Amino acid sequence: MLIEPRPAIDPEIAALVAAQQRELREADGGLDGQATLTHDDIRYLVVVVDGRAVACGGIQALDGDTGELKRMYVRPAYRGRGIARQLLAALEELAFQQDHSVVCLETGTYLPAAIGLYTSCGYEPVPVYGEYVDNPYSVCFAKRLPVAA
């Protein structure tokens, strides 16, 4: 398994994010109206297994101290192998390298596996923020990153 950075315009990023959005629409009954798939200002990481991109996630700066986890996704056939946990750790390291002291994220109440992953990795519930405020299915979490010794 390899975790590597990729630009937002990478076709494998686009394919993974499109798959994530399809799955979200199915999970929430079509209630999630997000139209924008990728953003140029998100720094993406991709997990590659046997030459195939199987997972992705990104960090987008919210402000000087805070990075937001975006588009975290693992293809269904690769779930249950610890890939998401390893990708999350790599994304936290990326956020730290970008001088963020906090990582926050939004997910849906209809994604209990995602909520379980984030809480087991030290993320704590925070008030719903930004564009998610009016979405009744949104839940938000944040984690303070360790400081360098």
Automatic annotation (TrEMBL):
<dbReference type="InterPro" id="IPR016181">
    <property type="entry name" value="Acyl_CoA_acyltransferase"/>
</dbReference>
<dbReference type="GO" id="GO:0016747">
    <property type="term" value="F:acyltransferase activity, transferring groups other than amino-acyl groups"/>
</dbReference>
<dbReference type="Pfam" id="PF00583">
    <property type="entry name" value="Acetyltransf_1"/>
</dbReference>
<dbReference type="InterPro" id="IPR000182">
    <property type="entry name" value="GNAT_dom"/>
</dbReference>
<keyword id="KW-0012">Acyltransferase</keyword>
<feature type="domain" description="N-acetyltransferase">
    <location>
        <begin position="3"/>
        <end position="146"/>
    </location>
</feature>
<dbReference type="InterPro" id="IPR050832">
    <property type="entry name" value="Bact_Acetyltransf"/>
</dbReference>
<protein>
    <submittedName>
        <fullName>N-acetylglutamate synthase, GNAT family</fullName>
    </submittedName>
</protein>
<keyword id="KW-0808">Transferase</keyword>
